[in-house]
Specification:
67% helix; single chain; 14 helices; globular
Length: 285
């Protein structure tokens, strides 16, 4: 795969601090994300921790570690499932009960470090791609955590708007940052699912939503993402279930089960879209 380079950057100028990791496929990080997608979260964190220890100035390593805590909590709370997405009360209001506070604490700590490193980079260069990418991902994940896990919907919307702003700046200069599309895409879709009156109020606050556009943006990551392609595929598949586009959901979930045969999450969702029963071993512990 050919990787587009930002203007003025050559392969000879490849950063020595690992800060190009979000824009190239780094084997250690790629393996870490693969472990996330088969629900092996502690093992994924070991991979990410190895990278951050060797590259402490790279904000993406800390973003990846934070993602491991968020994905783990989503799995335990059955967020990335059709049961959650097809239930408007859960999908639009959040989980029942409270998230694991220890996991949330670690999630917040990792993102705080990612933001600190990203802000330092952007203080030197306001167009720093690694910094913008880290802030896009951080704000996007915080929006999900606030809205879905903590049920702090106003805070979640603020973070959502922040993620969109960072993504717009990043993608203007790095159109190859395909993982970044999932942030504005998921935001557009979720807001597009809200009632007309709520969308109108948000529109006056500068927050817009469009379900069709949202799915199109998420599809960009699902087709060309470096690390988040599988995450975008499952989001798109679940959105397709909501929109009664079961053929698309079936296609995406089949691809995920082929690529990750050890994933109980993808196997369970593939079984559901086919109308098959879910074995007990496919359900979260």
């Amino acid at each position: 795969m050919f990787v587009l380079l930002a203007p003025g950057v050559s392969r000879a100028q490849k950063p020595s601090d690992g800060s190009d990791s979000a824009f190239t496929e780094v084997p250690e990080l790629k393996e870490g994300f693969r472990l996330l997608y088969v629900q092996k979260y502690p093992e994924a964190r070991e991979k990410f921790s190895g990278w951050t220890s060797a590259h402490p100035e790279d904000p993406f390593g800390f973003v990846a570690t934070a993602a491991s805590y968020l994905f783990e909590e989503f799995y335990r709370q059955s967020v990335l499932t059709s049961d959650f997405f097809l239930d408007d009360k859960k999908f639009l209001r959040g989980i029942e009960g409270k998230p694991d506070q220890e996991r949330v604490k670690h999630f917040d700590m990792e993102l705080a470090q990612a933001r600190k490193l990203a802000d330092a980079r952007l203080s030197k260069d306001k167009n720093d791609a690694a910094g913008l990418f880290a802030l896009t991902m951080a704000a996007g994940m915080e929006s999900n955590a606030d809205s879905i896990l903590e049920k702090k919907h106003i805070d979640g919307l603020k973070r959502m708007k922040e993620a969109n702003e960072h993504a717009k700046l990043l993608l203007a200069q790095r159109p190859d940052a395909n993982d970044a599309w999932v942030a504005p895409g998921s935001a557009d879709y979720i807001i597009g699912c809200l009632s007309g009156g709520t969308r109108m109020v948000l529109w006056f606050g500068g927050i817009h939503g469009d379900k069709k556009l949202g799915m199109e943006l998420v599809q960009k990551t699902a087709e060309k993402g470096r690390y988040l392609e599988p995450f975008a595929k499952v989001l798109l598949a679940l959105a397709a279930r909501r929109e009664k586009q079961d053929a698309l959901a079936l296609k995406l979930l089949h691809e995920l089960t082929e690529e990750f045969p050890d994933s109980p999450l993808f196997a369970a969702e593939y079984a559901k879209v086919q109308g098959r029963p879910i074995p007990a071993e496919m359900k979260p512990n």
